[in-house]
Amino acid sequence: MKSNNRVVMLADCQSFYASVEKADHPEYKNRPLVVAGDPERRSGIVLAACPLAKEKGITTAERLGEALAKCPDLVVIKPRMQKYIDVSMQITEIYKSYTDLVEPYSIDEQFLDVTGSLHLYGTPVELAQIIQRHVMEATGVRARFGIAETKILAKTACDNFAKKNPSGLYILSKDTLADTLWKLPVSSMFMAGSKMTRHFNVMGLPTIGSVAQTPLSKLKQMMRRKFGKNSDISAEMYWRIANGIDDSPVRPGTHQVDPKSVGHMMTLPRDYAKLEEIKVVLLGIYIKTCVHKGSNLLILWRNNIFQVV
Ligand SMILES: [Mg+2]
Fold it and tell me: What are the residue boundaries of the UmuC domain, all occurrences included (predicted)?
């Protein structure tokens, strides 16, 4: 990475709710554990599964009854949202001790722009290792780091590479996109949901690289044929994402909500074009509202299902 470029990290906590519970319950250290709504009725949904539970084939968002069928000695813990929010804020504070530029992205993901403070710690990987150890020692949670010049590339680096790396770290350099990002199927592209993935495949664009290498004017034409004139903005958005172009800054304080406020205003990290994503953002605000009112209500939106747990 050249010195005049930004160094942005997306830090993601592994199996976050399950990791918090395991840190709080050392007696379950070597047992498969899930956090799921309504353990008594078996009807809840798995919100988080620890790596041992995942080894048994248990996946997030599956029904608890199915998970118990796969693994009868599964430890099932009821979600404690306030606890997870507290630990999330504790982790954000740890990140803030390394850089002022920390932007919470979700309860278990934060962006860090470490460009200004990196020289105090060494290379990007060395700094990520220091922060990773710090978070582990303080909370028992394992953080994984995608490192790149932009937020979208850092997020892509984390989701597609760091999570699969034993070290939990990955640097995605802009110079190597052709051998890394571009080789990925278009389904792995940031912002591309299952519908858009199908459309890209029908258009003969099966990889992120095939989207990136289509001239923008051509991509606009192709998408206009499918979606009409208004699709120019989405065409440009996908083309920029595929080419790793993203100048959005890491905005400290985004997503911070004043507990006393009733209405919610949020500065979004970027423009949201898809209904699915807008729903997720609205849901995020709704969950915060519930938590600030001291309610234990959690609504999970996944696979087009809203569920109260
Ligand atoms: Mg996570």
Answer: 8-193
